[in-house]
Amino acid sequence: MCGFFWQDMKRSFMNAGFLIGMAAVTVLLLAAAVMGAPLDRTRSSYYILFNVFGASGFCPFAAVFPVLAYATNFCEEYQSGYFRMIFARMSPVRFGITRILTVALSGGVMLAVPVAVACAVAYTFGVPGVPQGSDEGMLDGIIILTYVLKYGDWYIAVGKTMLGFLFGCVWALMGFMFAVWIPNRYVALIAPFVLYESMWIGLDGIIWLNPIRLLRGDDVGSYPLAAAVECVYLLAVSALILAGLVRRYRNG
């Protein structure tokens, strides 16, 4: 079990999909940071961050990237019959828990690293703290101002990185869930994006359930609440994955 876990973990990170996805997200976020403001410490760090998350074009397509890493691997295992060999060595629940961990971690890291890099750029080349000068008042009425005054800039950087990680975990598992129930690679790649867009539009009036709002965290009004809802989504998707694997096991 332990050996399979570490082998699966290695495969979940050492693949072209993971590297391409993380590189694409990094380019999108950094391009918005570089092109959206002069990086000479004349603008607020939060002006740069607003460009990163609002003008990069990343958030509307964010669910596309976590799926690229390892979420669809079960499709190949199913179509080749290899999944039967796996189930002969371990129960579908043990396999499911292992694969859930590896898929979630690869998807989470894929988004967390670029978000952390973007935050580092914002705080290095922008002016941290409460915005002053031409940016004065830009945080009025936003939870970020409360966090900066109460905890400091680190709380925003860590909070956004954690929300990026949890978002990546959830939507990588969404791809895995579709792969288990409908073992077609194209379905597993496209269906999470369709679901994400549908939830974004359908839950527009329920901010604390809206996936794009949870990724940003600011609109929810609480980073801990946004993280908690992401964890609920994560548990719900994991339960569906395990149910699907048990079904595959029983049906042979």
Summarize the structure.
The protein has 252 residues and is an all-alpha fold. The protein has 12 helices and no strands.
Poorly predicted runs: none
Principal-axes geometry comes out as: elongated
Number of strand elements: 0
**Mean pLDDT, as a whole number?**
94
Briefly note the structural class of the backbone.
Answer: mainly alpha
Q: Give Rg in angstroms.
A: 19 Å
Distance between the termini: 22 Å
Give a quick account of the main beta sheet: strands, pairing sense, barrel closure. none
How much of the sequence lies in strands comes to under 5%
Oligomer: single chain
Helix and strand element order: HHHHHHHHHHHH
DSSP helix fraction: over 70%
Number of helices: 12
Write the layout of secondary structure elements.
Layout: H1 2-13, H2 16-36, H3 45-54, H4 67-70, H5 73-80, H6 82-89, H7 92-125, H8 143-150, H9 153-181, H10 185-202, H11 211-216, H12 223-251
Helix pairs in contact: 1-7, 2-3, 2-7, 3-7, 7-9, 7-12, 9-10, 9-12
Task: Tell me about this structure.
With 252 residues, this protein is mainly alpha-helical. Helix content is 74%, strand content 0%. The protein has helices at residues 2-13, 16-36, 45-54, 67-70, 73-80, 82-89, 92-125, 143-150, 153-181, 185-202, 211-216, 223-251. The protein is elongated.
